[in-house]
Amino acid sequence: MNAEALRALVAEAMLAPSVHNVQPARWRIVDSVTIDLFEDVRTRLSVGDPRGNDAGISLGAAAEGLRIAASRMGLALETHAAPTQTDAALVPVARFLVIEAGIPPDVLAAQVATRASWRCGFAMSSLTDRADVQHLSGPDCAVISDPAALTEAAHLYDAASYGYMRDHAFRAELRSWMRFTPGHPRWNRDGLNAAAMALGRVEAIGASVVLGSAFGVLDWCGVAPGLLAEGKKIVAATGVVVFHRSVGEAPFESGVAFYRLWLGIERAGFGAAVLAALADDPRAAQEIARMAGVPDGRRIVSAFRIGRRPVGGAIERARRSLDETLV
Ligand SMILES: Cc1cc2nc3c(=O)[nH]c(=O)nc-3n(C[C@H](O)[C@H](O)[C@H](O)COP(=O)(O)O)c2cc1C
């Protein structure tokens, strides 16, 4: 394999989703057939993700992105033990050998370039849409589409999400990954920019104030929950997809399946936004599992609000340059 082809594989892998768009994956092209994956621990969310669960999911998604990219070139990946650690900031995750296998492109390959978080509202759902979302149900995925259940899910989400937002340290960490104006030096590189968060110029300034210095007083007056609530978008969604995996599965493995599920949602013609608070908050996770009929012995890994994207909407994704991700 020539270096350009290997760089193209890495670039495509970086299109995978990651928590707060921190993009923890770092890659080393070792030789013409070997690529190492590392986690850059400087991107860890020490408050929001103290155990590295979301980082693990993000790394699993990136690795799956590499595998899908390779399949597009007829190549398979063989996973080997990670190399030894030589840099405190880079934790080795896995080594991949690229094998000429003549395999067909992954069935989800076509969705990689267009998948993106859709944080705007969705188009009004038709009865057919509501029936179609149910086809996404599977062994690790339950779908809620009944309007009353969506309203309940919306309340659960807003309560869970606000519980996290009340923590000053959580807000500070989140804000450090938010880019409220295009003048931010990392607007196009990483984190959550106002466009990706579906915030107009004025809304972005408002969000910056609410999540910053004004939070205490707005919380005290009882106004902050309403300003941060996202529930209306859940009520108006076509469905909520509840993603569950076996208890005890490593986050990396869950991340592989998480990315494939998201690409599958896109292949079915739906857009999606992650509702991580429904999985992270233990009470919300328990309730959503009950509502979705998730069997015992499963862990809620994540949830998505899904629906049809209105015509014409497209989001430019922020990603690190290849030079920033190759180590
Ligand atoms: C583990 C994990 C948790 C996430 N949690 C949320 C979330 O709570 N809310 C949200 O809007 N997006 C969430 N996302 C989506 C990321 O913010 C998104 O993938 C990232 O910003 C990159 O943007 P893209 O999906 O448009 O490529 C999560 C993604 C991952 C992998």
Which features does this protein show?
about 325 residues, alpha+beta, NADH Oxidase, 2 domains, four-stranded antiparallel beta sheet, binds flavin mononucleotide
Structure commentary:
With 327 residues, the protein is of the alpha+beta class. It folds into 2 domains: 3-113, NADH Oxidase (3-Layer(aba) Sandwich), CATH 3.40.109; 127-307, NADH Oxidase, CATH 3.40.109.10. Helices cover 40% and strands 19% of the residues. It is built from 13 helices and 10 strands. It has helices at residues 3-13, 53-72, 127-134, 147-165, 168-176, 201-211, 215-221, 224-228, 231-235, 251-267, 277-280, 282-292, 322-325; strands at residues 25-31, 34-40, 75-80, 90-100, 141-144, 178-179, 192-193, 239-246, 271-274, 298-307. It has a 4-stranded antiparallel sheet with strand order 1-2-4-3, covered by helices on one side. Strands 5-8-10-9 form a 4-stranded antiparallel sheet, with helices on both faces. Strands 6-7 form a two-stranded parallel ribbon. Strand 1 and strand 2 form a beta hairpin. The protein starts with a helix and ends with a helix. Bound molecules: flavin mononucleotide (FMN). Flavin mononucleotide is lined by residues 17-21, 54, 57-58, 61, 116-117, 119, 192, 273-274, 276, 317. This is Nitroreductase domain-containing protein. InterPro entries: Nitroreductase-like.
